[in-house]
Amino acid sequence: MLFFLPGLIFGQKFPDLAPTPPMGWNSWNTFKINISENLIKEIADAFVKDGYKDAGYKYIIIDDCWSLKQRDEAGNLVPDPAKFPGGMKALADYVHTRGLKIGIYSCAGTRTCGDYPGSKGFESLDAKLFASWGIDYLKYDWCNTTGLDAEKAYTTMRDALFAAGRPVVFGICDWGDNQPWLWGKKTGQLWRISGDIAPCFDCVIDHGSYKDWGVMKVVYVRKDIRKYAGPDGWNDFDMMEVGNGMTVSENRTHFTLWCMLASALIMGNDVRSADPATVGILTNKDMISVNQDTLGIQAFKYKDIDSTEVWVKPMKNKEWAVCFLNRKKEPVSLEFNWTEHKISDPDFDFKVDFSKEKFRLFNIWTGKKAGTTGNVVKAQIAGHDVLVFRLSN
Ligand code: GAL
Predict the structure, then answer these.
(1) Atom 6 in ligand 1: which residue has the minimum CA distance?
(2) Which residues touch 173 (CB under 8 Å, ≥6 apart)?
(3) Which end of the chain is more exposed for a tag (fewer CB within 10 A), N or C?
(4) What is the CATH topology of the domain spanning 300-392?
């Protein structure tokens, strides 16, 4: 009988769970070990009250350090009762009742990165437990995995999730160490491409055995992988640091890049107490619609014009998003004559010759129409800031 159910025998990933990049919030960047049921409930409330849900954010993801340090006698993971006294099922119900989805974290190794029990050897048990709680998203880390083959280990969990029967977005988090873009699309919906992000524009924080990376460092850590990303399999540039201490310009640039790069948009700040500028950035619907464009093409860098980078994202209906990014701390004056530019996508079949084709311009961050590509753009861009246009025909 089983021979006629190849899905059950060989497993597969749940199809079509992320036709556009997943959007949500994750506890790690701000809260680390200090997580609780109350925090998650308050985040869910803020999603509804402060417009995040309306803007498209959906997943609330509990990262590492949610369980007890040991499994119970039956081998099950146990939510730490001091942090989650009502248990995960009730918490998932709370989140679901608000029209949102809930995510959790585990690790392919013997222990998580924070030294809690990992899923190695317990994949099926853990997947069933997560399904019984109503979990919708699993971030699956890569600590304490000596001797494991990444593709196999992630496939084991993929199959366990599938067999458990509840659709779960599966986030691969091996920091790009095992080239997940080559195999991730059949395994999960997104894969991290770098070590952990840090809340700074271009810094590197050296911890000795590992490093954390500023926004621009994450953007540049890999080359030639945009061709692997697309609907249902995304390059994940990590949880965002918008609202975690950078300037407003830097926050805007960080968010713009994550949208242009078709990354998952997972907020990593305390959304309960975010200031108005941060909320405005994170919920800008015009910018988000660039990220959520259903063609799912990741932007590429077209050119450097002195310190200004020009990023370009082909979109559906022959639209484009074009971002001018000032890498310097000081303001720059930009003069850009569209008609002198022919742009062609290095990986996909998209081309535009602005001397032959004219587009209307919409300035995404001012929310205003901005003439056409028949005019020369003359603008001042503040330090570490962006000027972003949506081009339509
Ligand atoms: C890292 C991961 C982080 C966070 C942390 C938890 O490996 O990249 O995003 O999940 O583990 O310990």
Answers:
(1) 64
(2) 139, 140, 141, 142, 191, 192, 236
(3) N
(4) Immunoglobulin-like (2.60.40)
